Every structure is written in C-alpha cells, then in structure tokens.
Amino acid sequence: MRKKKDAMNETRRTSDEAPLKEVIDRWLKAYRLDSKMKEMDIIKAWPEMMGTAVAHRTRELTIKHQTLYLKMDSAVMRDELAHGKQVIIERINQKAGFQMINDVWFG
C-alpha cells in the first residue's frame, strides 16, 4: 500500500510546476512566435471568413507589419474586395481576438 501512495505523490504537480499550455505560451511569446502562429491561423481560416469564391480567387495572402497583402487572380473580385476593405479588417481582427491588421493592399 505504501508503494501506491508514493507513486501517486510522484505524479502530482508541485507548486513550482506550470501547466504545459502556460509553458508553451510563454515560450512562444519569448521568441515572438505567438503573433506568427496567429497569422498562420488567420491565413488558414481565410476561406471560412471570406467564403469559397474569394478563397478560390486568392493566389497569395500574407500579413506583414499589420497589413494584409492579397494577390487575386480576378480583377473584378479584387475591385469588389477593395471597396470592402473595412469589412475584411474587422473580420480578421475579430477572428484574431486583437487588432492584427489595420490595412489591406491588393496586388
């Protein structure tokens, strides 16, 4: 019976141990990878946020210095999206949970 108790005590956390999620979050922030991970999440969610028609016509999607850079293969779609820049900015920032972008450029 004594061995079981000792084994159970070994698996318990001590007060100086942090949950794995906390450790990973701190590590990502320390190496400034947290924003890069969020950018990747946004790029992956582009079809969900903008719809399949826009996603199929998007050739390139990057985020640099709080600016979303889009390359579209349809001039008509590019013009339509240019008129709705504010909607794109709001959707992305809402999905990110913070102000990730403040401008959109089309190429």
Keywords:
107 residues, alpha+beta, three-stranded mixed β-sheet, elongated
Write up this protein.
This protein is an alpha+beta fold and 107 residues long. The protein has helices spanning 2-11, 20-30, 34-44, 46-50, 52-57, 75-83, 85-96, and strands at 58-64, 67-72, 103-106. It has a domain at 36-107: GMP Synthetase, Chain A, domain 3 (2-Layer Sandwich), CATH 3.30.300. The protein has a three-stranded mixed sheet. A hairpin with a 2-residue loop joins strand 1 and strand 2. It starts with a helix and ends with a strand. 9% of the residues are buried.
Brief summary of the model shown:
By secondary structure, the chain is of the alpha+beta class. The chain has 7 helices and 3 strands.
Sheet bearing the most strands, described? 3 strands, mixed
Give, in spatial order, the strands making up the sheet with the most strands. Answer: 1-2-3
Topology, number of strands: 3
How widely separated are the two ends?
71 Å
- CATH top level of one domain is Alpha Beta
The assigned CATH architecture of one domain is 2-Layer Sandwich
Task: Please estimate the helix content.
Answer: 55-70%
String of helices and strands: HHHHHEEHHE
CATH topology of one domain: GMP Synthetase, Chain A, domain 3
Number of helices: 7
**Class derived from helix and strand content:** alpha+beta
Approximately what portion of the residues adopt beta-strand conformation? 15-25%
Provide the low-confidence segments as ranges. none
Mean pLDDT: 85
Q: How would you sum up the global shape?
A: elongated
**Rg, nearest Å:** 22 Å
